[in-house]
Amino acid sequence: MTNESTYIQAIRKKLQELKPITKLDFESEKNNIDHQQEVNKLIHLTIQAVDAMDLIYQSALKMNLKEWGEQIEVIINDYLKILDSNGIEEIKSLGEFMNSGTMTSIGTIPESFQAELQKFQVFGVHERGFRHKDTGKLIRDAKVITIY
Fold it and tell me: Does residue 122 contact residue 96 with C-beta atoms inside 8 Å?
């Protein structure tokens, strides 16, 4: 009986040490979740902006507007720095060997078409890929053109 009462006393003491859960705790957690959802929305919006700027950049180069291309490239790099500062990194693809874990090949060109790259290397990037730097969790795979 003495052991049981000592045990119950120990439990009571531990229960008294526990901090009661308050409404503020729930609100704080909800605010953290809301904040993270907003950050995620801004990250995806920034990725969309990079996609749009990439299209404009490619159009400027095709029209031989080098000065425009240079300015657009600065803006793209600024967006990439914003993503990087929020823990998001671009998946380097151009010139790399095809990695099915982070890239999807959406087309191929023959090895004879160019001299610098080997079979299965990335010749072009249609859409950049992104992942979380800390976890490596994929946000979006890169859409690439490879050598065959």
Answer: yes
pTM (2 decimals)?
A: 0.76
- Cβ neighbors of 83 (< 8 A, separation 6 or more) are 43, 46, 47, 50, 89, 90, 130
Rounded-to-10 torsion of CA 120, 125, 128, 133: 40
Contact 131, 101 (CB under 8 A): no
pLDDT in tens, 73-96: 999 999 999 999 999 999 999 999
Q: What's the pLDDT at 8?
A: 82
CB 133 within 8 A of CB 90: no
Q: Which residues are bridge partners to 121 per DSSP?
A: 97
Side chain identity at residue 144, one-letter code: V
Q: Mean pLDDT over all residues of the chain?
A: 91
Q: 116: which DSSP letter?
A: S
